[in-house]
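Structure request: Aminotransferase, Mycoplana rhizolycopersici.
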Amino acid sequence: MQGGAKVEEAADELTLLAERHLVQPWPVSGSIGAEARGRLEGGDGIYVTDAAGRKLIDGPAGMWCVNAGHRRKELAEVMAAQAMELSYNSPWYTTNAPAARLSGRLAGHAPDGLDHVFYTTGGSSAVETALRFMQFANNVKGRGEKKLIVSRQGAYHGSTYLSASLNGRPRDQDWMDGAGEQVVKLSCPNPFRRPDGVAAAEFCDYLVAEFLDVIETVGAERIGAFVAEPVMASGGVIVPPDGYLRRIRELCRQNDILFIADEVVTAFGRLGHVFASQEVFGLDPDMITFAKGVTSGYFPLGGVMIAGRLLEELRRSNHSEAMFAHGLTYSSHPVGCAVALKNLDLLEDGLLEHARSVSGHFQSSLKALEELPLVGEVRGMGLMACVECVADRVSNNPLTLDLEVGKRIDNHCQELGLLVRPLINMCVMSPPLTISTGQIDDMAAILRRGIELTMDDLVREGLWRG
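Returned structure:
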């Protein structure tokens, strides 16, 4: 009893410390700096344990990132060994063996021609790096006006100033400044919410025509890059129409616009391959940004794969003195690169194959949730999916944003043994790639029950008629 009291007292102290001193990401002003979110104490495989001792399936794999699963001894041992060998080196004037080896491994997996990598600390800094490289390259080429960036509604590309300016999700920029004058946003390629009067078979043509109109209106000489997630992750796992990305890529090629594939989420096994651009979508981007799954979240690391021809063009320019004045203290971090190398071993030694083998069961198990009246659509690809809830299926209108139905479902699911990623009226699932078919069944069953309990709540509170 005395030991239990001490544990409870320690937990209360941690909660108090968080409320007094910890500023959480994405807070609202009403609770900023005075909030203690649910605390996790441990993890093992696809499971995490919360402060109350409950064992939960980690439905979102942390933040799309714990691809190899929690408590992988191989990754922890490599991290410790590298820290004892070389814990850090300045990338300004030295390099290290893990960074060099990893660059070769990544080039071997990337689409042909993307044979160079610039390392960052995460996804935001990776996207920021790609955009700054575009600006630098056009400056060197004497094209100072070719700097506009084309993004899309519903997109999420980061939290640094320029990368965040590309975001197009509801509420992301309501109270935040950004470089809006540098960004042009196209329609979200979401077939479920395509414009009225546009048939599903015509939607791809509609989107391509929109981009062509922007190019003709703004001028190709002013557009530097098009940035896209192959599958929009935080926007609700939006899978674009067939052929859309390839057609957009061709327009970029014809108009000398860099195509940047943001694979921060889709790379390193989430869609069954190290990089999904070529293998899944038939794309050959000019740059690919990555992070998250590259180390399975065990160490902060990201990067940009860059086409060698872009670097060759710079080397041939008349401005050999031009400096790409961009870098990070932790670029090419030896510990992060060592962990990424071991993580690649795990992916190549069967984890990618396993992810591909269970993805069909994962998608079909969640698709069955469309039987529920609150569910408008279940969509996804590979081991990422979204359950979108709607007020009614005739208009496909989302529930009033203030209801935050996703949080309600997540609360019920946590009581039942599942951690969900709630996004307003959506629930996103992207479990560790190690998940088995039986564990997928458990996850789907808990999510179904969580949605059913939420429907009961909404009817009882008079917020929904069912």
